[in-house]
Write a structure and sequence with these properties.
Layout (H helix, E strand, L loop, with lengths): L3 E16 L5 E17 L3 E5 L6 H8 L7 E6 L2 E2 L5 H10 E4 L13 H11 L9 H11 L16 H13 L5 E5 L7 H18 L2 E6 L2 H4 L5 E6 L2 E7 H6 L4 H8 L6 H6 L43 H4 L20
Parallel strand pairs: 3-8, 3-9, 6-7, 7-8
Antiparallel strand pairs: 1-2, 1-4, 4-5, 9-10
The protein binds adenosine-5'-triphosphate, iron/sulfur cluster (SF4) and magnesium ion.
């Protein structure tokens, strides 16, 4: 594998939970991100998948340095960026850009498309000389498949898919190395999702980008990801290549998510087992002891309440190299779900 461009170690973000108006008292904390580890190789796409509220957007904001973590490191090309400030931080920020989920609310309705895409140049004027910016913005519109003459139009004059193209053009303006895309197609029609994903794949090759691609559904990240990390309640519980996750999942949570993915072939659909997860996701203020998935796990046993499973290759697969031998935080990991 290529050398990692990004290494995330023990990343934690806890938000204080306070009570009282005048005399604020901390009564707990929201453990939005609670010990996340992963690496991203240059030119690679890492998909991060998990249900609503599991901490995906918080991870995205931490990676782009929009927030400081409570603990842990984010190493970009070997340097921990969580401790940087001033000019050094600004330089790193240029290289890690974000594309947001909702193209309807993430674009300022009062700004023209040209101003939106060119906005990063106001913050990083060294990236493009003033006289050259309009030409660059038009070039970016062309790159994302929009007419360069639309530069003076406003966001409401575009469809959802076109707006997300504008969001992507803005993300590309500073020629970053990494793009963190937080559910970039979730708000779009299914027919438009594929177009935007194809565009992102083309741009990745053209601009040698590395992607962290966040989604709540395993089927969306399947085609674009080289590797996938499955997140549950602030942690990654299973990670592996496409094949390892989609064909040889060993964590019960991943298996449950996969069983919910729509299958187009009617015969295959008839023969597969659906795993229905019972109960709600526990609150991130009160994470279960031992394995955090145990309150909803169909395989949970007594040991699961006492031991925290580490994200590593489970002992049963260590001596038998093959696709099942990948990191999975389960004490009873098995490719057989039930
Ligand atoms: N600024 C904040 N203050 C307090 N709690 C927060 C804050 N930001 C996020 N949270 C909480 O942290 C948890 C994780 O939120 P996050 O937005 O990262 O989840 P998500 O996986 O992106 O969810 P979704 O799929 O709905 O976008 C949630 O319980 C959320 O309420
Ligand atoms: S450790 Fe136990 S509760 Fe957790 S996923 Fe594995 S079987 Fe389920
Ligand atoms: Mg989110």
């Amino acid at each position: 594998m290529a050398e990692p461009i990004l290494e995330v170690c023990g990343l934690v973000k806890h938000y204080p939970l306070t009570r009282g108006v005048l005399f604020k008292k901390q009564v707990g904390s929201v453990k939005a991100v609670d010990g996340v580890d992963f690496t991203l190789a240059a030119g690679e796409t890492l998909g991060i998948v998990g249900e609503s509220g599991c901490g995906k957007s918080t991870v995205a904001r931490l990676l782009c340095n929009l927030e400081r973590p409570t603990a842990g490191e984010i190493r970009y090309r070997g340097e921990d960026i969580t401790k940087l400030s001033g000019r050094a931080l600004k330089a790193v920020r240029r290289n890690i850009q974000m594309v947001f989920q909702d193209p309807y609310t993430s674009l300022n309705p009062r700004m023209t498309v040209g101003d939106i895409i060119g906005e990063p140049y106001e913050i990083h004027p060294e990236a493009a000389p003033k006289g050259d910016r309009r030409r660059r913005v038009q070039e970016l519109l062309d790159v994302v498949g929009l007419n360069p003459e639309y530069v003076n139009r406003y966001p409401h004059q575009f469809s959802g898919g076109q707006r997300q193209r504008i969001g992507i053009a803005r993300g590309l303006a500073l020629r970053p190395e990494i793009i963190v895309a937080d559910e970039p197609v979730s708000a779009l029609d299914v027919s438009v999702q594929a177009q935007v994903i194809n565009l992102m794949e083309r741009l990745q090759r053209e601009f040698e980008l590395s992607y962290v691609f966040i989604a709540h559904d395993l089927s969306i990240v399947r085609h674009i990801s080289d590797r996938v990390g499955v997140m549950y309640l602030g942690r990654i519980v299973e990670t592996g290549t496409d094949e390892q996750i989609y064909e040889y999942a060993t964590h019960p949570y991943t298996q449950a998510l996969l069983s919910a993915v729509p299958v187009p072939d009617p015969e295959a659909r008839e023969h597969r087992r659906r795993i229905i997860l019972t109960g709600d996701v526990p609150s991130p203020t009160n994470i279960p002891s031992g394995c955090r998935f145990r309150t909803r796990c169909f395989k949970a046993r007594e040991r699961c309440a006492l031991e925290v499973p580490a994200l590593e290759v489970p002992p049963v697969f260590r001596c038998t190299p093959g696709p099942a031998a990948h990191d999975s935080a389960c004490l009873f990991a098995s490719t057989e779900p039930v």
